[in-house]
TrEMBL record:
Domain Nudix hydrolase: 7-140
Annotated EC: 3.6.1.-
Listed GO MF terms: hydrolase activity
Cofactor(s) annotated in UniProt: Mg(2+)
Keyword Hydrolase: yes
Self-association and partners: Monomer.
Keyword Lipid biosynthesis set for record: no
InterPro entries: NUDIX_hydrolase-like_dom_sf (IPR015797), NUDIX_hydrolase_dom (IPR000086), NudJ (IPR033713)
Stated family: Belongs to the Nudix hydrolase family. NudJ subfamily.
Full protein name: Phosphatase NudJ
PANTHER family hit by this protein: NUDIX HYDROLASE 23 (PTHR43222), PHOSPHATASE NUDJ (PTHR43222:SF11)
Major enzyme class: hydrolase
Keywords of the record: Hydrolase, Magnesium
Length: 166
């Protein structure tokens, strides 16, 4: 629990929801809880827009170029890892889009064991292996047709050239 003078700092992540031929692309990744399933996803880096981040993360985790088409939404979840004393609230910006073929010679990011194309029924049946409850929630929202235009996210130029005050 934070003290009165501490600023709350949630972890900001981006995720790619990719569907082709009736299947969704997931990654199987190593976590402190063992191998778990996730959407291609990861932390947003400093000075990086959410679109840049999701394209980078999808490439690193799937070895495929990702082209975002829409924003699915903004999601929040809290995760407490008791034995490590970790208590993190995640803010996830999820995007839907398409990927190309695997890029020859490109390796998967450290900790990613493999990619899998899974049906919705397979994903629902594997919920106990999901890294986060947001994995299935993002896919369910995609199935429900939720889409926002990419321009719903505004990036001020100061992200790349910070304003200096004082």
């Amino acid at each position: 629990m934070s003290t009165k003078n501490e600023r709350w700092k949630p972890a900001v992540t981006v995720a790619a929801v990719i569907k082709q031929g009736g299947r969704y692309l997931l990654v199987e990744e190593e976590t402190p809880e063992g191998l778990q399933l996730n959407n291609p996803a990861g932390h947003l880096d400093p000075g990086e827009s959410p679109l840049e981040g999701v394209v980078r993360e999808a490439l690193e985790e799937t070895a495929r170029d990702f082209v975002p088409e829409s924003l699915l939404g903004l999601y929040m979840a809290r995760f407490v890892r008791g034995k490590l004393g970790e208590d993190v609230t995640y803010i996830r910006l999820a995007f839907s889009g398409q990927v190309g073929e695997v890029i020859a010679g490109r390796t998967l990011d450290h900790g990613i064991h493999r990619t899998l194309w899974m049906t919705v029924d397979e994903i629902r049946a594997s919920a106990t292996r999901h890294r986060s409850p947001l994995v299935l929630r993002c896919i369910e929202d995609h199935l429900a047709g939720k889409r926002l235009p990419l321009d719903a996210i505004h990036i001020d130029p100061s992200l790349y050239s910070p304003l200096i005050k004082g």
